[in-house]
Amino acid sequence: MDLNPPPGENYGHPRICLFHVLFKGAALAFYILSALFVNSFVIIFVVTVLLAALDFWVVKNVSGRILVGLRWWNEIDEDGESVWKFECLDQESMARINKKDSWLFWWTLYLTAVVWIFFAIFSLVRLQADYLLVVGVCLTLSIANIVGFTKCRKDAKKQLQAFATQTLATRFQSTIQSAFSVV
């Protein structure tokens, strides 16, 4: 993964990028600043988890679809088994995905989880089990999106490879058939 955003390219969806970062930042900022301004753990828990849940929803249902062209969900089938479902844009549309949007999406997705892990370690060191609970919920939501979108990206790459293989095989077959039909 490249550390630097692609040069010379503007964001394709600046509002979506703003909200993608805003909800992540709001949950983190409230968690950090709440210790200074709020005395009630219940308020800190509820508001932080609510902001993290809003971030989860925005990433999963809006920014993931628009910024990287991926969508995932999990279903339970009749046998009680968990089944992951993935959707991605077609290959032409995936090729048009803005690289800066994609870079921002993936980096903020992973960086947010790293920050929550840092807060979890900090809570463990300070022996604050209640705050560890808040961080655990937020980290779980963040990791759920990472796992979902990473699996979705791998599935999209498999679909691209299968499409390319099928296209090449069809092209090769038609070339062979046309070569022998000329004779």
UniProtKB/TrEMBL annotation:
Keyword Magnesium: no
Keyword tRNA-binding recorded: no
A GO biological process held by the record: protein secretion
Transmembrane segments: 28-58, 103-125, 131-150
Keywords: Golgi apparatus, Membrane, Transmembrane, Transmembrane helix
Annotated GO CC locations: Golgi membrane
Compartments, as annotated in UniProt: Golgi apparatus membrane; Membrane
Taxonomy, superkingdom: Eukaryota
Topological type in the membrane: Multi-pass membrane protein
Free-text function comment from the UniProt entry: Golgi membrane protein involved in vesicular trafficking.
Similarity comment: Belongs to the TVP23 family.
Name assigned to this protein: Golgi apparatus membrane protein TVP23
Organism: Sesamum alatum
Source taxonomy: Eukaryota, Viridiplantae, Streptophyta, Embryophyta, Tracheophyta
